[in-house]
Amino acid sequence: MTELKAAVAEIAEQFAVSQEKLQQGVDLFIELADRGLASDEDVHGLPMIPTYVNTIPTGSERGIYLAADLGGTNFRVCSVTLAGDHTFKLVQSKNPIPVDLMSGSGEELFSYLASKVASFVTEHHEAKETDEKSKFKLGFTFSFPVTQSSLNSGTLLRWTKGFDIPDLVGKDIVSVFQGQLDKQNVPVDVVALANDTVGTLLSRAYSSGAVAGGKQGDTLIGAIFGTGTNGAYPEDIDNIKKLPADVVKSLKAKGVTQMVVNTEWGSFDNKLQVLPNSKYDVAVDALTSNKGYHMFEKRVSGMFLGEILRQILIDFHQKGLILRQYPTFDKLPHRLRTPWELDSEVLSLMEIDDSSSLKATELTLKQNLRLPTTEEERLAIQDLTRAISKRAAYLAAIPLAGILVKTGAFEKGVHKEIDVGVDGSVVEFYPGFRAMMRDALALTQIGDKGERRLHINIAKDGSGVGAALCALDGA
Ligand code: ADP
């Protein structure tokens, strides 16, 4: 075996997630989820944020609602017309977020967002505007950690995914947004704050007809694997011990028994009790503005997979294993030297390259990184890519299995089949990601029997429709 092959094999071994680790991960997930439900003071518990969303749609809901979504890369505005028969019509606009706004002032960002809502309403909803003075109700999907004390307010805890606008931390995001909308005279009321995972859960439930007795079974989890990763599920109110007693009392008086909890599982195991922590993970973490946080996300989601590979390539170059034509780091192609330049989309192309001599990979690396490679190097890079993606998909199984075990989903007779709604480019487009996740799920405590009863489906336009469904709750 060549030195390069041996080094690649060592990484593949180091990145492999054993059945034992998976099961330890599931146990730890349940423990940290319970601790997070009990108290916000426990810094090692998962955030487990109560969302004040109490109703899982059945598919019979009707009406026109707006939704806006600030995710990672884009700001989407849409209107959703619910037909009441599990179907909907959606009109959407997608606006890339200018990079300078991601670290500017709060006012700049939200003034920009409000202006995009204004142009959307003008372009698509003239008819409704003439319809008296009534305002559109909007559900706002804000995919960053917030604490909520009602459906239409939420305090930003910290930024993730490359955003860094300190003046908004600790502020109520809904009132900041509403303030800018009012300033620009946009006829829109922000009535609900939804996380994208909550939206994914609700939209999958609306579309699948699960609660109404559809074949797919109850929709129990909404999960995102995109720029970041996160999940939400309905929890019994009695188990959310940190909810204030008066809130529980008033909810119970209304007959409410469950509330959707936003787990913020991106920060699962920040203490690294179970998660792998290679020197490459350490290097990636050091480049982020939220060091030591979101450690699960940093091993699993789209923003980080490419950077992990870039770190390995740089290390291999330094050890003289690859790219020997470049004598020093400074001489490497600029893009390879630059953090975050290697997109996980590139990994998804290399993952399944079966062309002779990996010609497709050769082209991809040339186009994206201006990097010429030998066949031996490409074979190594493909194996490294597969080690990174497999580790990500295996780890992704941990919170899913954790929630299924914790809620006793498979033990309850009514849940013959379980439906998981997923969204995000990684789970949607990364070749084999879902299949690898399923392989790992079968190795967890749910076993292959549980895995077979599980349906993992893309929640199409999940966050938009889901946020609209939250607006319905707040109407
Ligand atoms: P967001 O999470 O920002 O709302 P997406 O779900 O589209 O949006 O996720 C974007 C992330 O997914 C980026 O990190 C990008 O690198 C990654 N990505 C986009 N396309 C692919 C693909 N085909 N394969 C793997 N990752 C992808």
Automatic annotation (TrEMBL):
Domain Hexokinase N-terminal: from-to ranges: 8-206
InterPro entries reported for this sequence: ATPase_NBD, Hexokinase, Hexokinase_BS, Hexokinase_C, Hexokinase_N
Keywords: ATP-binding, Glycolysis, Kinase, Nucleotide-binding, Transferase
Matching PROSITE patterns: HEXOKINASE_1 (PS00378), HEXOKINASE_2 (PS51748)
Pathway involvement of the protein, from the record: Carbohydrate degradation; glycolysis; D-glyceraldehyde 3-phosphate and glycerone phosphate from D-glucose: step 1/4
Cellular component, GO annotation: cytosol; mitochondrion
Keyword field contains Transferase: yes
Claim: Kinase is one of the keywords in the record: yes
GO process annotations (BP): canonical glycolysis; intracellular glucose homeostasis
SUPFAM superfamilies found in the cross-reference section: Actin-like ATPase domain
Molecular function terms, GO-annotated: ATP binding; D-glucose binding; fructokinase activity; glucokinase activity; mannokinase activity
Domain Hexokinase C-terminal: 221-472
Domain of life: Eukaryota
EC number: 2.7.1.-
Protein family per UniProt: Belongs to the hexokinase family.
Name this protein carries in UniProt: Phosphotransferase
Organism (species): Kuraishia capsulata CBS 1993
Phylogenetic placement of the source organism: Eukaryota, Fungi, Dikarya, Ascomycota, Saccharomycotina
